[in-house]
Structure formats: structure tokens, C-alpha cells
Amino acid sequence: MTRAESSPRPIDEQLPRIRETLEGADRVLVCLDFDGTLAPIVEDPDAAVPTEQNRNAVATLANTPSVTTAVVSGRALTDVRERIDGPSIYAGNHGLELARTGTIAIHPVARKRAARVDRICSVLETALRHIPNCRIENKRLTGTVHFRSVPPAAEPIARRITRGVVDRFGGDALELSAGKRILEIGPDFPWGKGNAVELIAADEPPATAAIYIGDDVTDESAFRAVEPDGIGIRVGNDAPSSASCRVESPAEVASFLSWLGSTGAELVARSDVPTATPIEAQ
Length: 282
Ligand SMILES: O=P(O)(O)OC[C@H]1O[C@H](O[C@H]2O[C@H](CO)[C@@H](O)[C@H](O)[C@H]2O)[C@H](O)[C@@H](O)[C@@H]1O
Fold this sequence. Notes:
The chain is of the alpha/beta class. It contains nine helices and 13 strands. It folds into two domains: about 10-105 and about 190-270, Rossmann fold, CATH 3.40.50.1000; about 110-185, Trehalose-6-phosphate phosphatase related protein, domain 2 (Alpha-Beta Plaits), CATH 3.30.70.1020. Strand 2, helix 2 and strand 3 form a beta-alpha-beta unit. Helix 4 (about 110-125) crosses helix 5 and helix 6 runs parallel beside helix 7. The longest helix is centred in the C-terminal third of the chain and has 23 residues, at about 250-270. Bound molecules: the ligand O=P(O)(O)OC[C@H]1O[C@H](O[C@H]2O[C@H](CO)[C@@H](O)[C@H](O)[C@H]2O)[C@H](O)[C@@H](O)[C@@H]1O.
């Protein structure tokens, strides 16, 4: 059963449910989006870095035996891996590439369509060359056109040009989707972060509590993958979401991850200790 979209509740209100979920679990799987979640949103995508508190909290969780930590990002796998250390699992390109247990799996359809993404990125470089500060990020399996630094008067035309190029050269193979001040070009088939989270969760023992934290539209499928048995946490405003909880900012993400690395992990560890039988208790 999935959770219908509604307004996520502030995380403080949801702590009793989170505690109960952790107390009933043997392990925790924590899946984390990168931009807007671990790293504050910035103008230049190359300049995005996790806050120090998030970096430390992720390192602590990655060293906690009862916790599996994963980063699930829209960035290319190689890119996001360089930006945050510690997790044993990374998914890049919105789940199209997945690195775990020493292997990297790339979705075969995305692999086949990578040449077309590359071609479109080159065409866009030329078509958008006169738009000030419009930037194309070629991520091999997907591409991103960035409008955050484009002058407001030029943004509509830049978006129109992007749509035109993808319509013309993408055919039925590629589609456009929207993110925070970006348009993303990717293979036109139903695969997203939620599928990656399901694959990651399938490797965990049955009594694992799954938590997903993210801030954007592509994180919604991942919230649906963990809710309602697990915990989805949407970062930012109170837009309708399939996540049940909300935090305001990457700083609040760090507070929650620190709590999870101390109190949260203890709740899970305690549920591991067998309860004393009446005979032992005498
Ligand atoms: O799934 P994520 O890890 O959150 O990645 C989503 C996209 O994030 C990046 O773009 C966003 O962050 C930039 C840096 O803060 C910002 O300038 C941009 O406006 C945001 O949309 C990244 O560059 C994209 O490739 C990711 O798809």
C-alpha cells in the first residue's frame, strides 16, 4: 500500500512514530538525496558541498553496525561519490546507475540511449550559447540544463529552446522532466529513484526500517517506496508529498541524522536484545 500525497508533518510531531518504527526493527536503511538535502542549493552546481554537520553525521551512520547508508542522487554516480564519503551504496542519475557490493549496475535501456543524450547535450551547447549563464551538465545517462543563473527575461526562451531540441532529437527515446530551476533529459521509460531504493532495500533483512530523505520531485517515487512502513522525510516547504515527515533545511537534516546516529541507533540495538524470560528474570 502506498501513502497518498498530503502535507508532510513537521518531524518533531512524528518522533513517536519514528521511535516506534526503530524499536520494532533490527536494522535501519538510510537513503539520502544529495542536492538540497545534504548540500544546500547553490547557484553553481559544481560548488555544491554537504554541510559539515551532514558530512559528520553521514560518517557516523556509515560506521554504525546496525545502519546501512546509501546516497541516491540525480547527479552522475562518479560526481556524487566524490562529494560525500562514507555510504556503502550510491545510486546516480536518478537510480539509473547503482554501485553496491563492489559492482556498478547501469540500466540497460539507459545505456543504449546514452549516445543520444550526449548528442542532445552537444546540440544544446550550440543552441543555448547566446543565453547568459545557461549551463548544460552532461551526466552521460541523463543531461541537465540549468537556469538558476540565467537572467529572468531570458529563462522562458531558454526553456523553449531546450524543449524544441529534445522534441526534435529525442523522439520517443528521451523525455524532459523538471527539477529545481532545471530541466532534465533522460530515457523515456518508467524508472526512478523509487526503483533504486526498492533494489537497495531488497538486500536488507526483513526487519529493516527504511528511511528516505529528499527535497525534490524525483524524490517522490522514493518516498512511495519506503512509506508507510518506513519513513519518508521531505526537505523544504510544505508542498504536498508522499513523505509523512518534513524538515525545513539541510541543517535540520543534520540534526535528524545526528539523532539517528545516537538515540535512533540505540533504539534499534535495544530491540536486538532478547527479552528476559520469566525464568531468567527470577
Ligand atoms: O537528486 P539530487 O542529488 O538532489 O540531484 C538533483 C539535481 O541536483 C543538482 O542541481 C540542483 O542543485 C544545484 C546546486 O545546488 C542547483 O544549482 C540547481 O539549480 C539544482 O537543480 C545537479 O546539478 C543536477 O544534476 C541534479 O539532477
